[in-house]
Write a structure and sequence with these properties.
Layout lengths: L4 E6 L2 E6 L4 E3 L11 H8 L6 H9 L8 H12 L1 H6 L3 H8 L3 H19 L11 H7 L10 E7 L5 E9 L9 H11 L3 E7 L9 H17 L2 E9 L2 E4 L7
Parallel strand pairs: 6-7
Antiparallel strand pairs: 1-2, 2-3, 4-5, 4-6, 7-8
Amino acid sequence: MEQIQKYVLRDSDLLFTSNKSKQYILKIRDLPTDDRPREKMLEHGPTILSTSELLAVILGTGTKTEGVLEMSARIMKEYGEKSIISEVNANTLSKNLDIPITKACQIVACGELGRRFYKRQEGGLATIRNANDVYEYLKDMRSLPKEQLRGIYLNTHNKVIHDEVISMGTINSNIVHPREVFRPAIEYGAVAMILAHNHPSGVASPSDKDLEITEQLIKAGKIIGIHLLDHVIVAKEGFISINAKYDD
């Protein structure tokens, strides 16, 4: 008897199932033409594609163990939209997401193009004057499944000139070294910065380690002349500001 087969779509992760309940990665070429991201874009334009589908178009192909649609969906889920477009280090991206370096380079190059075009526009830089602005700016961090440490680097007018993922995973003093935090500030000519990290648990209250790290970085910033204005802990339903010293 001929085996019955069907397609199943789950949040852009494309899987193939059979009546034996065995799952396989569904390749782009196996999809109906109308469901392929590139063909959809050619037919209807880029606005109809989801963010992960747009990323799949950029990546082009997956790997032997992960289809391109599955990979792009995982990247967006684990890194967040704003984080992925702000990343400038392909080696870091490749390591954090376990993707080939060539694909990490594609993503970083795409992000750099977007930043260059965006900065040419009038008022293209976000302004951050308080912790609530930070929370709104970091909307993509609220539902991240892993803990992520972000640095937001500001000019003299409190405008964001750079935004970078400093580390991923549990935040502790062994990982958060001042040189990694302040290096982008020096590189991009920032006069101040804001540190932020998310609590996937949903509880925004700072831990003793969070307070300790903040104090250490404030002292380090004073030595090199770059102010750490705040350390904001982001949770799904709210935030906590550990050290709010914004200049209006």
